Amino acid sequence: MKVLLLYPPDFNMLRSNVPSLVDQETGFYPPIGLLYVASYALERSTHDITVIDAHARRMSFDQIEEKIRELKPDIVGIQTLTFSLYDVVLTAKRAKKANPDVRIVLGGPHAYLFPEETLNLPEVDFIVLGEGEKIFCDLLNALEKGSDLSRIKGIGYKDGDRLAISPPDSLLNDLDCLPHPKRDLLPLHDYSSILSKGSCVTTLISSRGCPFQCIFCDRPHLGKKFRHHSARYVVDEMKMCRELGIEEIIFYDDTMTINRDRVMEICRLLKEGKINLMWDVRAHINTVDKDMLREMARAGCIRIHYGIESGNQRVADVLRKNIRLDRVREVFRETKRLGIETLGYFIIGNPTETREEIRDTIRFAREIDPDYVHISVMTPFPGTYLYRMGLEQGILPYDYWKQYAANPDPAFIPMVWEENFTREELNEMLIKAYKDFYKRPGYIIKRLLKMRSWKETYHKVKAGIRLLKLK
């Protein structure tokens, strides 16, 4: 069968608050999840697989429709995030317009969270629940052979007037059984980042699942158990990336540094293999130490993203961050001493948070002085403890994500946590926080001195100008 895997455009992507400097002009990252699905199907079947990233290609819906007419796929699989749901629906409509007989499959976290609502969308024929590599391949093979779909775990489909949804299969324990994603299925140079020091960037997922219990975050389709690729698998993939001409890798793990021995082994293998790559990770404050940071720096790590969220200890405890602010200070000092750039994530408008506690966060961000900050307004996402708490306490008046999942509307705006402040007040504080951090003369001079190319300078200056214009 001919299969088209699509990452949709995001012309209508929801914005829960004022975009951050890090969100603006960031470039594009490859849809690594789709590449995993495509690579597995190519290895385990004879299907003809094409992958298109309509977002990075800046394709219009007219262009998507024309591409589907040209390719004539039997199956169109679309990666589905709740934020891009409306664009997913428009993409599916255009696919059906191009060929009414094409079968539409949606997968990703949204389908997992809202299976019935997703399957009830008139353009949708099938959904994939959980980790999609094996499930999607099994679905393709069954459709080709006309096999009994009820035997496949983790799918949903329409059986006459009823919805048939089977429970997801168990999560993979041996991630090394998956083939490396075939990045050459997409144009490599479509991808870059404002933070990047290289001109060709990719993402890499070396683990799945996060054991931490932050109330605002949940990845239910990946579970809470930390599962990881072996160090050798990861380094082999990094070597393949380098051979393709990729200069920088952004690890998309929720928390890459949970298994210390594995991180140290990755560093050792990178140095032994003399693999000249820059890389960037997300880490929890409690999962790094001086020796690990030193080895990471020696092996090419140039940037670490730390989730701090609040500069007030009481609020951090409310969020179940399991961090101490003195420990944050110590880790940031050591990371910067080793020459590794830092990005700090912060949130304002948290449960029970006061205006003075928000000021604590802004003061703390300036004190630890990361190279970049990403500040957002607390937005309760579906499937999180925070969302359930908001519904139970009446802070959120109804299950609005479920309603949106059933009736995607481009005018829909997600609610923020308006316990003590209105959305307008929070946005005003957010803009002030960004300007207070990024407009400091010392910060501007320091960043300009670190610029390595005219391209980097251009994109960062452009992003800075956009920040200054925020009102």
Gyration radius from CA atoms, angstroms: 22 Å
- Give the termini distance in whole angstroms: 51 Å
Largest sheet: 7 strands, mixed
Task: Please tell me the CATH architecture of the largest domain by its name.
Answer: Alpha-Beta Barrel
CATH topology of the largest domain: TIM Barrel
SS element count, helices: 17
The unreliable regions are 15-25
**Secondary structure category:** alpha/beta
Number-wise, the strands total 17
Major sheet strand order: 3-1-4-5-6-7-8
Tell me the CATH superfamily of the largest domain. Answer: Aldolase class I
Quick overview:
It is built from 17 helices and 17 strands. The protein is α/β, with parallel strands linked by helices. Strand 13, helix 8 and strand 14 (278-283) form a beta-alpha-beta unit.
Written account of the structure:
- The strands form four sheets. A seven-stranded mixed β-sheet has the order 3-1-4-5-6-7-8, with helices on both faces.
- Helix 2 crosses helix 3, helix 7 (231-243) runs parallel beside helix 8 and helix 8 (260-273) packs parallel to helix 9 (290-298).
- The protein starts with a strand and ends with a helix.
- The longest helix has 16 residues, at 423-438.
- It is of the alpha/beta class and 471 residues long.
- It has two domains: 2-165, Rossmann fold, CATH 3.40.50; 195-379 and 416-438, Aldolase class I (TIM Barrel).
- It is 40% helix and 17% strand.
- It has helices at 32-44, 61-71, 85-98, 109-113, 115-119, 132-145, 231-243, 260-273, 290-298, 313-318, 325-337, 355-368, 385-393, 400-406, 423-438, 441-450, 454-468; strands at residues 2-7, 27-28, 48-53, 75-79, 103-107, 126-128, 155-159, 162-165, 192-193, 201-204, 207-208, 227-228, 248-251, 278-283, 301-309, 341-348, 372-377.
